[in-house]
Every structure is written in C-alpha cells, then in structure tokens.
Amino acid sequence: MIKAISPSSQKIAEKLVILNERTTGIITRIYNIKKACGDLKSKPKFLSDRSLENALKTITKKFPGLDNRNSSVITVVQSINAIKQDIIKALSLYYNTFVDLMDLKDHITELLTIIDACQLHLNITVNYDLTQLYLNLVCNYVAMMILLSRIEDRKTVPGLYNAAYELQNGVHDTCFPRLGQMIVDYEQPLKKLSEEFVPHSKVLLGAINSLAAVYVRRNLTADKWRAGQILSLVTASNQLLAVAQTDTPVFCDLWRQGLESGLAITLFRDEVLYIHNVAQTYFDSIKGYNKRVAELKEFVATAPGLLAPKVLLVLMALSFTKDEVDWLMRHSNCWPQKSGVKGRGYEDISDRLVLPEMLFYMVELRELLLRYRSVVQRYHVQYLAGFDALALNELLQSIASIPQESSVIFSDFCQAIAELNVEDLENDSVAYNFQGLRLDWYRLQAYSSSARFGFCLHDHVKLAQLMNTIVFHLKMIDFLDQIINETSDLSSYCFYSVLFEEQFRLCLESPSQSRYVCVFPKLCSHFANCLHNLCPEERIHIEEKGLSLCNLFLDEIAKETRNVVSTAYEQHRLLSEELLPKTCAKLIANAINKENRKKSGFMTLEKKGFKRSLSPQHGYPGDESYRRSREDMTLIDKLHFALTELCFAIDYYPQIVVWEHTFAPREYLTQHIEARP
C-alpha cells in the first residue's frame, strides 16, 4: 500500500520561497546571456569568428548530437581543437547557466507534483501567501522557459562548449544530453508548457479562479470606475477608509479580460510577450480550435485600440501608478498606429502633459514613506500588540479543532506579537526580523490547505483573513523598504532608456511640466533595485547607465536654464537700449516732423473726431506694460515663467544619490552659468 504524502513533511512553504528567489536569479542570468549574445561588442568572440562560421553552422544544425564519423563533424573537431581551452573558459559561465536552469526546472517540476499529490486548495483570499508564492513560481517558470527559447545562440553555445569539452576530456559533459534535449523540446515553449501543465491544471485553475475579483478590480476601465462611483466620496461614505470593500462587477470571462488589458505582458524587464499574436499562433497549431482563432481575430479587429491607460487608478495607490507606467513601457513599441497618421502609435496612448507630474508625485509619496518609516513602524508595533494579538488569541480560543502541531505555531505567533513594544523599536541595538514568523504562517497555509490534513483553513475564513492582516502589519515593520520597492520601483526604465530620454526631453520642452523634470534624474537611483545576486556581472553595465543618464539629465536641465537666462538677459538689454539717448533722438525727430505736418495744414486725428488713446503712442519705452489682458503673455513673461519652473526643478532636490555617487543639481547650473560665452 502506497503511503499518503504528508504536507508537513514536504516543506512546501520553504521550497516555494527558495525556488522563487532562485528562479528570479536564473531569469536574470538568462536575460543577461540573451542581451550579450545579441550585441556584437559583448558577444563571445568565438560566436562571431569567421574561421569558425562553418563549424558553428554544423553544430547548430546537428544539435544536440554530433556523429564523429561524419566528415563535416571531423572538420568541426579540427577547427576548434587548437582553441578548445579558450572556448571552455569563455563559455563555461553560459553553459553552467543553462545547466543551472535545467536543475531548477527539475526542482520546480518536482514541487508542483508534490503540491498536486497533497491536494492543496489555493485561494488568494484565504491562503494569500501560499497562493501568491505558487502563482509567482508558475509565472516565473513560464517566463524563464520562454526567454530560453529567445536566445539566438541557445544551441550554438552548449554545442560548442560540449565539443571542446569532449576534445579535452575524451567524453562529453554528463549534463549535455539532457540539456540538449530540453533546449530542443522548448523550441515551441508554449506548446511544451501547455502539455507540461496538464497534470497541474486542477490546482492551477483553482488558484487562477480565485483571482477573478482581484484581476477585474485592477483592470477596470475609467468608464467603469465612473459608472460604479468607486472613487466617489459621497457613495458608500461608511466605506471611505476601506476602498477594497466597495462592490464592483465581477467578470467571469478572465480570458477576454486578459485580451482587453493590453497588447503585451512583461516577461522580464524589457522582454514582453505579445499575447494576441502568441494566442493566435498557439490556437492555429491545435486541431479543432479554428473557432477560437476566428473569435480572437474578430476581437482584435473590432477593438484595435483595446483599453487606454487607466488614469484614474493613479489616485488609488503607488502600485496602480506603477502599473500605469509599466503598461506604457511595454506598449511603447507595439501599440497600433492610426491609419493615415504619421508617427508612432505610442503617441496615441501617452500624454506628456500628465506623465511627468504623475511620476513626480509618485516619487514624492515614495520619499515620504521612506522618510517617515519610523512613524509607520511605531504605529504598527502598537497596533499588533494592542489589537491583533488580542483578536488572534480570542479567535483561537473559539476554534476547538486545531491540531496540536498547528496550535503550538499559532500560540507562539500570538505570543511573539503580544511582546512587541515601541521601546525595542527605538533601540538601535534591537533589529526586528519577522521572517521566521511569516515562514511559520506559510507552513500553516501549506498544511491546512491540503485535503489530507485534519484542519482545513478554508473552513475558518476569519482566521485566515486575520492572519493575512497580521502578516501585512509585520511587513510594515521589518519589510517596509521591500514593500515600497514592490509598489513604486521604476527600475524598468533602465531597459527602456530611449523612451526614458524621450519622455525627459518632452517634459523639458513643455512649459507646464518643466518643473517636474527633476524627477527623471531622481529615477536613476531606482536602477540599483533591478540587480540580482545570481548575476553580478551586469552590475557594472547598469551602474554606468544609471550614472550616465543622471549626468545627462542634470546637464540638459542646467543648459536649458542657462539658455533661458541668456535669452531673458538679451530681452532686458533690448528694453534698456530704448532709454538710451540715440533712441530718444529718434522720438524727438518724430515729434518735430509731426509738428511740421500740423503747420502745413494736415488734420490731426483729434480734429477728425477720433478720441486720443489712453495708452502712450507706440514706440515709447514702457509700452509693453500696457495690456488689455494678463492672458496676453509677452516673450519676457514666458521666459520668466520658464525660468521660475526650471529653478524650482533644480532647487527641489539639493542632492541626488545614484550608486553611492552624489549629484548636486545647483552645481551643474553654476558651472554652466560661469562657462556661458
């Protein structure tokens, strides 16, 4: 008789945490390989060596196996024999990354199988952390395999490395056969992944179905927000402080919602997946899905614009603002262009009169949270000890069916938060770290979500909701910086540098938005957040990009300010010249000529019945001060306005720290003013 798998003995929670972190690191390395192989400057020299061109073609064509009896293979061996050690040294990092990916894939597959065997029931509203970790792992795994299929030299690199390895050691690398087969299997990643996830469909679909209400809320259009009066301060005033409780329509068709949310989704950084094209190609390859393909084509044809950016969501939270910016980034190169209109389609969905201001206030909110983190932490320490601990203890006493093992964890959890006090928080020698408590809660979710466990968390929704709330409060104490980064980090701009510079220049050219131009060099400090410990080699490149962009932005702001100052000075100089004697002589000559015309018998305007104008005659110094309306701005008015806005931008951040380098915007302006020709 086969013994049933116990969830408590499988360490599901621990494995989910570790594998998620590991997957992100491997994706970073795969992304770095893809970019390196796509750039001739950073590409390994063996892959672009003309003397090895025929050998590389042969290796790629016959991948993953090479028949040593074949004449073409013998030629390959002869061409790389002399440089085999150099090849192994140069390609070992790339090859080992592929091997690490294969090992990680095995661990993920094993864990997903264990979760299926334990019959876990995942629901984002109940066992939030467990469901989030599971879905994140699935998404990262899919993104990792798709990125692998996008590496141009994915066959050449391991094939060339293995050939050199076999020449040096007499046998091929032990991992190469499985690695080669994996690369071949994932030539069409979506088809392979769809087959691979068939055994996991029950758990996966249950987790996805629980996202229905959450997904709909985060992807509502502006019209639906207005129709539901979700942002109204009058409707449901008793729920003003609990926006998440306001009713919204629930859409069952998540598939259609996904298509309507945009044209592309982010895989990693600037790597995106064009969901409509991919879905159409995928359904074309499956027999009997012609009807679904027709529906997809009809949908794309009838709704080419899909949904515009959801501007009202900016009012909700930093995370919604980040979603908007990320949405604009990934659609910057793929948004359809209107027929008969020149330019990029991206211009139809971006509003340069809104985006800089939105970024500015987003960074402001972020800085306020970081500046007053002690206030946030102190409040949550008091709340946990004064309310959450009492509420949890009372709720646990009302539940009699908790197993002994889980009861011990709950009791320790309750005791730990009850002992929190503000004095320890203010003591620098005591550093709060609740990672262990959160991991205990992850374990409890894994145990109690299994159908084979005596205690079912889904039967005690209030307990699950309270525990999720407590975990969030704990994160506000020791995990606040990471939460802020999750909701407001814009390090993706590092990989959309062309778009980033374009938005900066548009902001600098717009008088109404130029005061917010200071946010662009500030965003360069976010680039450090996209690094991962498993890919240290990209640190130098990202650091150089962040420093160069920050320097470029500050230099351009200072130049523009200098130009405005110079132009304003020139205009004031011209006004001052009107008071010089040479200008006065012209006025005297005009007056004498006018007097002579009167003596000659010419009728003046007054004799003809015209009233004399209240303003001085045209040409006198000071005429520019007489206006019918203040809305009529002169050139000097516009220059003064532009100078005021630019000075606000330069003075707003006294210092900007990027990669441990301190930039002083005022110094840039001082240098440009002093160096003005």
Automatic annotation (TrEMBL):
Protein name (record): Membrane-associated protein Hem
UniProt family annotation: Belongs to the HEM-1/HEM-2 family.
Source species: Trichinella pseudospiralis (Parasitic roundworm)
GO cellular component term, pick one: SCAR complex
Protein origin, superkingdom: Eukaryota
Cross-referenced InterPro entries: Nck-associated_protein-1
Any one GO biological process: cortical actin cytoskeleton organization
Coiled coil: none
Pfam family, one: Nckap1
